[in-house]
Amino acid sequence: MLGLPNRGLKFEPGSDRITGKTSNDVRHEIESLPASTPIEDLVRTFIFYLLSNLFFPMANFKIPATIPSVADNVDEFLTYNWPASISEFLTIEFNRIGRNFSKGTPLGYINGFVHILIIWFLEHTTIHDPLDEHLRPRLVRWGSQIKYSEKDLSKLFGDLRKNQIVQQFVGVTDLERTLLQSSTVHPEPKMSSTPDNVLQIEFHQPSSPQTSPERSPRPSSPVSSPKISIQPRTRTRQPTTRSRAAKEKKQTADVNLKSLQAACKKLRAQNKSLVKKLSAVETNSTLLESRVKALEQTVSEMREKENQKLQGIDKFLFEHFPTTYTAFQMGNYSDSTSRTISEHDVVSPETANTPEDVTHPKKFVSHINKESVNAANLILVPIIESSHWTLLVGNLKNKVWDFYDSLPKKTHRAILPEVVSTISHLYEDTTTSFATDIRRWRIRKIKQVPTQKNSVDCGMYVCKYMEAVIQPEAVVWADVKDWEDNMAKFRAEFAYAILSTTIK
Predict the structure, then answer these.
(1) Which of 466, 483, 473 is nearest to 381 (CA)?
(2) N or C, which end of the chain is more exposed by having fewer CB within 10 Å?
């Protein structure tokens, strides 16, 4: 299906070490190559894209460190058996998913060239005819218009009929079929250089018909039965004596001894290298331990400063709202990322579920129907992932998703699968409320927005993002770069609005 030779070494991408680039970076790089790019750089970039985005894509968009070395050396790329390597990697991934399924644990994402399994299914069934059954490689025979949702896919296998399964593979040329059906390849006869005293041997067919059972017809070989010239033996074989056998045995032992000595020398060198690496690892471990302690001390000091700010807010609210802000709430506040610090995780003394303990998720979308969607312009979806808040805004007019992140780091790109999953669940839970498939909308990252300078204000930034995007006039982000300086004021304003019931 790949159109690559099925021979060579097995390639193992591994996942222990990764590069600084992501597969999306490589895709953008190859899209922006100028026309004047030298052919060597073009080939290297294309191989890098082929391995990172098609052959061995990872669910977290990271690239194993083994891939760039292959992309930098075309000769090394040609030494690997890529079809077998892709097949073995997919087998390992599916076995991992199978073990998780049997244990009842979350399945996770599958790494590797999963899309090629779809091509394999299409070319072994008659559900979709190829655009051109003679295209090479075979994976390009079907266009990109064939797309399935999870619901359609389960129905596809359930409705599959026996007569839709291909019994014989089609799309093979006559030349390929001849090569596949030929059992042997007859070599051309080599003529002897000394024609004296040559014995002539001729191949001929038996005159009587054979009585063996009939077999499937096989095309006859294009090579006719030749006359092969065989020169008679002119030299007799020397008898093996005991002394000669002993000599050969000694020579074999000497060769084995040299090989063993070379292997021992190589092992000693490897052991020396491993000892050196182990010493470096221990040194790095000691340095990391000291850095972790320093980081913990810094975090502790930041928390102490944050607690002092919150105590000041408590005092302000208790003095100005003595009847509403009771003594129970004094010191009983949540972390800015809405992950609770203590057992008291709600403002009210009444018990309530935390965001992780939602038992009836459809209640949160029960108010979404066709009427409410038609009357709205935006969909606001706050998302929390690994104690970090981000905002997803759906623009119903432009049919696009805008993603807001107050900590725009490369490490936060791993949240994109969670964003896609949130959109998918929202669409499925609201059934036919939307006129278009919101899962197919483009997701764009909003840049030049105000960003935080600490690790505790992401929740407030999401609130401010929502407050800004719902305004009738388009917000100019360059005019609101002072959010970090006024964060204490914003907290007090939001607390006042909540306590005054102006926010519902």
Answers:
(1) 466
(2) C
